[in-house]
Automatic annotation (TrEMBL):
The keyword Signal applies. The gene is Aldh9a1. This is 4-trimethylaminobutyraldehyde dehydrogenase. It comes from Microtus ochrogaster. CDD domains: ALDH_F9_TMBADH. The active site is at residue 257. The keyword Signal applies.
Amino acid sequence: VAAMSTGTFVQLEPLNYRGGARVEPVDSSGTEKAFEPATGRVIATLQCSGENEVNLAVKSAKDAFEIWRKKSGMERGQVLLEAARMVKEQKDAIAIMETINNGKSIFEARLDIDTSWQCLEYYAGLAASMAGEHVQLPNGSFGYTRREPLGVCVGIGAWNYPFQIACWKSAPALACGNAMIFKPSPFTPMSALLLAEIYTKAGAPPGLFNVVQGGAATGQFLCQHRHVAKVSFTGSVPTGMKIMEMSSKGIKPVTLELGGKSPLIIFSDCDLENAVKGALVANFLTQGQVCCNGTRVFVQKEIIDKFTKEVVKQTQNIRIGDPLLEDTRMGPLINGPHLERVLGFIKSAKEEGATVLYGGEPYEPTDPKLKHGYYMTPCILTNCRDDMTCVREEIFGPVMSILSFKTEAEVLDRANDTTFGLAAGVFTRDIQRAHRVAAELQAGTCYINNYNVSPVELPFGGYKKSGFGRENGRVTIEYYSQLKTVYVEMGDVESPF
Ligand SMILES: NC(=O)C1=CN([C@@H]2O[C@H](COP(=O)(O)OP(=O)(O)OC[C@H]3O[C@@H](n4cnc5c(N)ncnc54)[C@H](O)[C@@H]3O)[C@@H](O)[C@H]2O)C=CC1
């Protein structure tokens, strides 16, 4: 599918997927360009799907749902398991596609594909054991519950983890017996198609997983469609609000995975080497474009100088460049406007009195073919205050803000003083403090002595404005199914009439 080196990929096939095959949309609501961030090349001009195409996709998904909902959990699990096997088998090709379209290093893209097939495997396993309850009632009567699918679900994805988001949404949806229509971000239209092809080859009925390309207009057609039962969204807070509002008109349940400005708290009794590594992992994966990043790094006063020195040293060593090269650890940002936005945050940080200890500049790799890519050096800010823009707002780029604190009570207050609540982290050797702090942090995921590890067995999702509903873990079954109660009368009807 994909060429092996940066600057050579050409998109030839249609980018919508409907009824088990790639198709061109029957109508359009405009066009969007997708780039190769490493070179700035346009690699695809998308036809954004119009209302007719969305209607066809929903119709096709509905047909597949009628077949799929009647399968046993075990049968559904077998298809998911085969799909997981194929993702694993095609890991390199999928990772290359992801790197070309997103810009993250091939090293990281491979890790994303690992969590993707693991997610498929995990829900394949759960599919077979989904069941209701039997409840005994007076006089031999009884009731039972059936865990039933919702119907046609819509997944809307962000551009930072295109393939992984498609898997995290579709695996639990399909395991529960739903069909899914997935709309990738128009910046990253490519890799969801590879997943669609895999599902079909693995034995999913045609239409069970359709891909519809487009931006806001296409997303609205999907959310407003009367035969769509649920929307699962990953993206920004403002768009999340719109999704919820649209879905409310149809009383449709939503899962919202939104942004964050997560705190990472480093106590003086920590293992410093691990804390430094943790801070880098919390800030610089995927060029810092990660929703759960721990971008507010609170460091206890006694160790802040030592910690900062080591963080800067290790940040300087991050190899930036062609993301398809094996030893690259940081690629380009997603596009030009986003790079400008991130650099703008650094400018305002300086104006508000922060010190740039390292990085935060546009970067031009030596390879001439990368000249028009969207690279920057990762940035460490110190002398930050809680009221600065760089500390309050989600930057979604490789920018770490270091803040000093004295006491546990103080840092908890400051860490929780945000409208977001996606994740949080604490580094300490004091086991009681670790759990006490984790219990007090207002966040959907709290890491103790690590950061940004997301095993599929654990639920992931937000508190506060970071959203609600969960992805991964057992609990996600609840978000893709509904419970039917069946009452069974064994005696006669007693009527007051
Ligand atoms: N909590 C999480 O799991 C994650 C959250 N994010 C958040 O996503 C944001 C970055 O992603 P972006 O793609 O820029 O976010 P975005 O909100 O601009 O777009 C997300 C998706 O929504 C679609 N969309 C835009 N307007 C729409 C509308 N009116 N109706 C329906 N769909 C619409 C877009 O085409 C795209 O597919 C960041 O704020 C980040 O924090 C990103 C990744 C993971």
